[in-house]
Amino acid sequence: MNVQRVAVLGATGSIGTSSLDVIARHPDRFQATVLSANAQVDALVALCARFRPRHAVVADPARFGELAEGLRAAGLATVPHAGPDALGALAASDEVDTVIAAIVGAAGVASTLAAARAGKRLLLANKESVVLAGALLIEAVARGSGSLIPVDSEHSAIFQCLPHAADDPRGGVRRLLLTASGGPFRGRSRAELATVTPEQACAHPNWSMGRKISVDSASMMNKGLEVIEAHWLFGMPPERIEVVVHPQSVVHSLVDYVDGSVLAQLGAPDMRTAIACALAWPQRVETGVAPLDLAALARLDFEAPDMDAFPCLRLAFQALGAGGAAAAVLNAANEVAVSAFLQRRLRFLDIPDLIAAVLDDLHDAPHTDLEALLDADARARSRAAALIPTLG
Ligand code: NAD
Ligand code: MG
Question: Which residues participate in NADPH binding (predicted)?
């Protein structure tokens, strides 16, 4: 068996760390050959000391010297790189078989597309890149003749529940059912959400994640982005994608077939399962995740989402329905809103208001190619930034 040479983009983050945990358990199968981080040089050098990759990339070009010096001081042969172009080049490099796209936000789109174009085995956690450029990404995977395996737990669940027959991979599917935990504010009314803080929003009841996705989870924009992600990954129209709130996060998602059969994938809420599934697919490898104890769980609950208290989910469906660059605008406005909320420049309920206002202003942004999408992304960011003082 050949060792899979893996690039972990966003290695210092929550998904990156979990990925490296799985990789470390199977040195006979996986080898981390490229590691990247945004600006956390010390953390990146520490990972290099442990995993001995051939290359390390820091996205911030100003940190190249620091990275080179850190690697040298640690006595490592890892080659230092810096900047987004280096990230894209290494994602496409011959020294890599598999790319784990675990950068947060639209910042991950260029390296994700580069890996797809180069025909890599692309393990996708970076959902913002598929929301921004879904059609282009799917096309790039097809042209590059590589593969795309979801890492997002819901999409991993659906991937596992879909038929894998080569002739008709979507045969007989009626609906995709995405489960949502409901986040830390499940059950609260709109009025009760007026004064919630970033600390409360980041205290997720089931999952431990980066701060941006934690806020998305609290606003339910995370589920909105995942609906758009499911649309592109599985070629499913929006009216056949449903969201159901499931507070225990044990059923990770379901596929409903026309004959009435519904397949679900279950597991503990630990991303190492979805990461390992994607890394080893179609085989299975051990992850250290505890076996599910159904008797101890005792019950699984389900309820409809509350779109009034959590309008982000509705906004995402609207953007998907609108087509063009609307999803790119939604994503960019959300990134600006979440960052302003984390910096206490915006209240929680301003997040959907800001996104709705930006979508309204830029509803006719065209989608022709990547340049047009990135232009819509940039316009949405500056429009959102300009609107923040009028809301806060
Ligand atoms: P995180 O904030 O913990 O880590 C993000 C990583 O990206 C870090 O390594 C950081 O250095 C890097 N990064 C940040 N900005 C960058 C930039 N501008 N250029 C290059 N690198 C940059 O985030 P996370 O929770 O690990 O999430 C990563 C992605 O995976 C997100 O798209 C998220 O939605 C998705 N995801 C996460 C989880 C989870 O459990 N954490 C689950 C499903 C999907
Ligand atoms: Mg998810």
Answer: 12-15, 126, 128, 210
- What pLDDT digit, counting tens, does each position of 13-25 carry? 999 999 999 999 9
Residue 111 CA, closest ligand 1 atom number:
20
The answer to which of 118-127, 198-207, 236-245, 345-354 has the lowest mean pLDDT is: 198-207
Ligand 1 pocket, residue 357 CB under 6 Å: no
What's the CATH number of domain 4-150, 3.40.50.300, 3.30.420.10, 3.40.50.10540, 3.40.50.720?
A: 3.40.50.720
Coil vs helix vs strand at 61: helix
- Secondary structure in 3-state letters for 283-335: CCCCCCCCCCCHHHHCCCCCECCCCCCCHHHHHHHHHHHHCCCHHHHHHHHHH
The answer to the question of whether 36 is labelled as a binding residue is no
CB of 13 closer than 6 A to ligand 1? yes
The tally of CA atoms less than 13 A away on the side-chain side of residue 357 is 17
Contacts 24+ apart (CB under 8 A), 136-142: 136/369, 136/370, 136/373, 137/112, 137/113, 137/232, 138/232, 138/233, 140/113, 140/116, 141/116
d(CA 256, ligand 1 centre) in Å: 30
Q: What is the pTM of this model?
A: 0.97
Task: Report ipTM (2 d.p.).
Answer: 0.99
Residues, CB within 5 angstroms of ligand 2 (ion): 152-154
- Token digits for 313? 């989910």
Whose CA is closest to atom 2 on ligand 1?
210
Per-residue pLDDT band for 167 (boundaries 50, 70, 90) equals low
Residue nearest atom 22 of ligand 1, based on CA coordinates: 38
335 lines ligand 1 (CB under 6 A): no
Question: Taking the CA atoms of the chain, what radius of gyration do you get in angstroms?
Answer: 20
- 168 has pLDDT over 90: no
Distance from C-alpha of 120 to C-alpha of 32, rounded to nearest angstrom: 15
Confidence of residue 368 (pLDDT cuts 50, 70, 90): confident
Residue extents of the structural domains in the chain: 4-150
**Pairwise CA distance, residues 128 & 216, whole Å:** 11
Beta bridge partners of 32: 6
